[in-house]
Amino acid sequence: MNQTKWLEKEDSWANIIGLFLVLSISAFWAFDGFSIVKVLNVKFSTWSGTDILSAFKNLSFLNVAILFCFFGVWLSIVSKFLGKKFKPFIFGFILLFILSILVFLISAHTSAKEYQLESPLVALIIGLILGNFAVLPQWLKDSLLTEFYVKIGIVLMGATLPLTLLVSAGGVAILQACIITIVTFWTIYFAATKLFKLEPSFGATLGAGGSICGVSAAIVIGNAAKAKQEHISLTISIVVLWAVVMVILLPIFCKMLNLDAGVAGAWIGTSEFADSAGLAAAQSIGDERAIAAFTLIKIIGRDMFVGIWAVLVAFLSVTVWHKQENTQVNIGTIWERFPKFILGFLIASVLVSLFTLNLEAIANEHFSKEVLGMIKTLRNWVFTWTFLCIGINTQFRQILLVGYKPLLAFTIGVAVNLPLGFILSSYIFHDFWTEFMK
């Protein structure tokens, strides 16, 4: 029963798929069979003008078909355990896959590269156009697992960040994340409950969505606080709105201020509200250091708070906000609410670090170029599906109907979070982030 319940969770399957890819690709490389799995390394070449066929010069249509079948089989298995209807789910994935090919082709064009239109931003734009100007069936939207795709991508990202880096940089990242999480949470909560007289449980849900891990935190903390479902839905809409705004503005601000890639990634990590949107913003910087800095602060630093805040908020809900209800607060909620895909991220980092520990310098260089290069490519595919899902599921008309009080409360948190994140990244921890990964 417990095993079945474990397999009914997105985090479990994200870890299974992500770690399977890391282990299998590494094993094939170690036993001289890398050419077998290399068929999954689908990456389009740069092209210009109207010569679109040149984008396929280093791969065949068979490679694309194999990649589709590989993920299609995995996702078909996952749909069964997650209780999804097979046909709508697989049709939704087919649409995502076709759109992702379009995204990569557009972002591989020389004009797109000139204007730094990276694949995440292109995917988000296409998704937003479809979500707001096309009439899409509800079954399609229900089949898009945004959080699931980003979790797979984060597990794969763990393989590209060695354990030594996590140990050396984790302390600073967690400290910065602690500061930003605590300040932002209580700012939004105070604004919501004291300035706009919203219910405490609603204020806690808004605060969690703006300070921890966006949509996931809004759901987890909202339920822990016993917030009304409509309040959780409103919070999600506000989080998505600001996440989309920040995915566009933060990279622009970083480039205008000529920030170092490490500093830029750290600022994005403290000031974005959703993992997927933040990854899109970090990738737009065009430097792996920005992605790594973002990951340490947002994924390792801020997301880990979801379990801690769930217990705190559940305690407040029972003892203060809903005191009349006879409910026990169980400390086991920490483990229950803890995002398990972070464990997959850490395991992937440990496995790759141990694997490369005894490799000679030349072999290590080949491993990084071939194995880690392929993992990054697969990670980009998964993240592209994530950004397409975000765009398709974001409808501005619904967000505008949220109401001004919760939106203003959240916006006050943004007004504090944004400059605080900049000060922490560019001044207080500036020396650390400028030397990060150099």
TrEMBL record:
Stated family: Belongs to the UPF0324 family.
Species: Helicobacter turcicus
A Pfam family hit: Cons_hypoth698
PANTHER family assigned to the protein according to its UniProt record, in alphabetical order: INNER MEMBRANE PROTEIN YEIH-RELATED, UPF0324 MEMBRANE PROTEIN FN0533
Membrane topology: Multi-pass membrane protein
Keyword terms: Cell membrane, Membrane, Transmembrane, Transmembrane helix
Localization, UniProt: Cell membrane
Lineage, uppermost ranks: Bacteria, Pseudomonadati, Campylobacterota, Epsilonproteobacteria, Campylobacterales
Chief place where the protein resides: membrane
Protein's name in the database: Sulfate exporter family transporter
